[in-house]
Q: What sequence folds into this?
């Protein structure tokens, strides 16, 4: 299959036209312009191509979208996640979904537990993460960013780092052998 940007008019024209020099020149010029238009079209689809954008373009797009909780010092994957979720953040602002997305963006894994799930005071919640690589700076950044997406009436009780593992089955084996020892002597040819 021929791609549009690689196509030439002379490939589909009848032989008597395709062999003329003027038609070949026009087909070449049109082909160059089609390739330029395709290149411009590829660069115009910015939001659909966030995974291919460089860091500078992500920073500019974050400013344009007013991505909440965005910081230029974040790593590239965190920046991509925040820019991709910017419109969703605005739709879901103030909900547990938005807080969970911030936890996933900054801590990579985690969730929240609302007050009625753990018996706390109304409108309070706890944040859980299982990422052992988080630092105190990550926690400070999370609490700063959290204030931009949570409801003003919601209160964070604590951030819990959960490093529990699944139960493990332990197998123990033992081997016992009892028996008699029989000593066999070798016949000495000199004694016989």
A:
């Amino acid at each position: 299959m021929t791609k549009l940007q690689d196509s030439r008019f002379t490939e589909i024209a009848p032989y008597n036209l395709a062999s003329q020099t003027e038609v070949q020149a026009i087909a070449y010029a049109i082909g160059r312009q089609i390739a330029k238009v395709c290149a411009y079209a590829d660069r115009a689809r910015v939001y659909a191509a966030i995974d291919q954008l460089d860091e500078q373009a992500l920073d500019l797009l974050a400013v344009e979208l007013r991505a909440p909780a965005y910081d230029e010092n974040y790593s590239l994957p965190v920046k991509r996640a925040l820019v991709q979720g910017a419109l969703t953040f605005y739709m879901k602002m103030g909900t547990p979904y938005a807080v969970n997305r911030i936890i996933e963006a900054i801590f990579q894994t985690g969730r929240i537990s609302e007050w009625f799930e753990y018996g706390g005071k109304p409108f309070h919640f706890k944040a859980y993460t299982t990422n052992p690589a988080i630092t105190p700076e990550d926690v400070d950044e999370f609490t700063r960013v959290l204030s931009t997406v949570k409801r003003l009436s919601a209160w964070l009780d604590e951030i819990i780092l959960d490093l529990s593992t699944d139960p493990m089955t332990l197998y123990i084996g033992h081997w016992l052998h009892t028996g008699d020892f029989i000593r066999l002597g070798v016949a000495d040819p000199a004694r016989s």
User: Anything to note?
Assistant: The domain at 94-173 is CATH 3.30.300 (GMP Synthetase; Chain A, domain 3). The first strand starts at residue 111 and ends at 114. Helices lie at 15-18, 21-44, 55-65, 76-84, 86-92, 96-107, 115-118, 136-149. Strands lie at 111-114, 124-129, 155-161.
